[in-house]
Inverse folding.
């Protein structure tokens, strides 16, 4: 780990998007309507080649029983579980609208059930949901089927049900093992329970277990976070996602309950990040980029080594890009050269479906320039390198003249040791890999003004 790293993080850890898409989702517009998505679905249906491409599904269950104070998600806090059944009826209507557009039994190779808290649903409701999805889509036997699990809402019996329902990947929200931190963010869960859930999940044959951590939370110190990392190393999940907490109480209401005086300083956050990078490297994890780590034999680490890593709304993936159908409140989809996002409130979402319309509240039809820049940004984010010729052949441009202005900034980054530029391409150095989002930002035409930058959280 370079000794100058803290200084470089201070310097290049500027505000920026995480590039699960380009353009980023803040660029979606209300002028994109359900009819525009219907056209994209019709093009998929009518394109013989596209018909062969499998689908990804991202299903959003927006309910949580209790509020985590760091939360920035779209969710509804409720203990009234009867909402689950009503919500499933609306999800079914949404699935029916999709299958009416492109036919039933399209092949699905990836499903992600996220939230909110998917395990807010009872076992029976989860079974109904999976039956309903299987009636509309054909799930490939070798697919990746993942579910986000709140450790407080599952036990071994529930994990057994999830495995029976076909889930083969688990994502556990841990955030921090320290009881004082857990109390400060109103998410108390014992480390004993998490260790026992992971052991059960392994025994049940879940192929991949992922753990989410957050640094920068109230009551955290570099030393306390070291202890959490030590426990995570012992837990040894296949994947770890390490997020920076960004305190934006004016934007995210739950964060107003966090006591600002309890937050670590900027220097302490930098220290937590650098110590995390060292600790996880020492524990044998491969840094995929953007705070995502995997064990060397995990499919993502293998894909990274083989230059097959992809990035989309569901994060890093070893699977090639495919159309993504987002189902549920605020879910995001990607069909052809379009992005779309469902209504963000339950009332609006149900209202669209009551009127027989896809519940799309905003979206974007990507321009040719968007597609060129997306290819460049994703190559940098996923492969850490870019060959000019491949972009030139795919999009019929001359790379050097198309991106003449961008090269001025890239040369400064080259002087800082973050990238190498030669006559055939650009390579992100190992050091630059820690700031890869900053390198990608150079090609982001939408991100010109500082004002826009301020809306995003810190890269690292
Ligand atoms: S962090 Fe997750 S579990 Fe907590 S309130 Fe937000 S969506 Fe719900």
């Amino acid at each position: 780990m370079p000794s100058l790293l803290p200084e470089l993080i201070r310097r290049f850890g500027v505000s920026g998007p995480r590039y699960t898409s380009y353009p980023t989702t803040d660029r979606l517009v209300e002028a994109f309507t359900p009819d525009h998505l219907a056209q994209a679905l019709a093009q998929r249906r009518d394109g013989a080649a596209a018909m062969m491409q499998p689908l990804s599904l991202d299903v959003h269950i927006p309910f949580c029983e209790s509020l985590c104070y760091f939360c920035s998600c779209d969710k509804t806090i409720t203990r009234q579980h009867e909402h689950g059944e009503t919500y499933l009826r609306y999800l079914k209507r949404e699935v029916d609208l999709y299958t009416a557009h492109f036919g039933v039994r399209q092949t699905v190779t990836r499903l992600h059930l996220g939230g909110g808290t998917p395990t807010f649903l009872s076992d029976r409701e989860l079974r109904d949901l999976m039956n309903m999805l299987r009636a509309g889509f054909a799930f490939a036997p070798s697919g990746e089927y993942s579910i986000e699990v709140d450790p407080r809402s599952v036990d071994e019996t529930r994990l057994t049900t999830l495995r029976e329902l076909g889930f083969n990947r688990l994502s556990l929200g841990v955030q921090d093992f320290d009881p004082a931190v857990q109390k400060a963010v109103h998410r108390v869960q014992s480390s004993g329970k998490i260790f026992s859930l992971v052991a059960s999940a392994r025994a049940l044959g879940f192929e991949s277990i992922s753990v989410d951590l957050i640094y920068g939370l109230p009551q955290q110190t570099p030393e306390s976070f070291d202890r959490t990392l030590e426990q995570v190393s012992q837990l040894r999940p296949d994947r770890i996602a390490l997020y920076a907490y960004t305190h934006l109480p004016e934007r995210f209401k739950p964060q107003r309950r966090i006591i600002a005086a309890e937050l670590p300083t900027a220097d302490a956050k930098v220290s937590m990040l650098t110590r995390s990078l060292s600790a996880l490297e020492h524990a044998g994890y491969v840094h995929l980029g953007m705070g995502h780590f995997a064990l060397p034999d995990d499919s993502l680490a293998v894909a990274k080594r083989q230059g097959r890593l992809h990035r989309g709304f569901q994060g890093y993936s070893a699977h090639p890009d495919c159309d993504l159908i987002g189902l549920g409140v605020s879910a995001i989809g990607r069909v052809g050269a379009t992005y779309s996002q469902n209504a963000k409130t339950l009332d609006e979402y149900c209202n669209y479906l009551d009127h027989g319309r896809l519940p799309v509240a905003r979206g974007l039809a990507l321009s040719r320039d968007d597609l060129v820049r997306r290819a460049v940004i994703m190559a940098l984010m996923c492969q850490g390198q870019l060959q000019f010729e491949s972009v030139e052949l795919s999009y019929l441009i001359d790379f050097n003249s198309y991106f003449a202005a961008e090269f001025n900034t890239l040369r400064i980054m080259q002087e800082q040791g973050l990238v190498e530029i030669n006559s055939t391409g650009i390579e992100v150095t190992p050091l630059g890999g820690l700031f890869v989002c900053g390198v990608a930002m150079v090609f982001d035409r939408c991100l010109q003004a500082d004002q826009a930058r301020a809306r995003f959280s810190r890269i690292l």
User: Anything to note?
Assistant: Residues 44 and 50 are 6 Å apart (CA to CA). The longest strand covers residues 137-149. The longest helix spans residues 82-102. The radius of gyration is 22 Å.
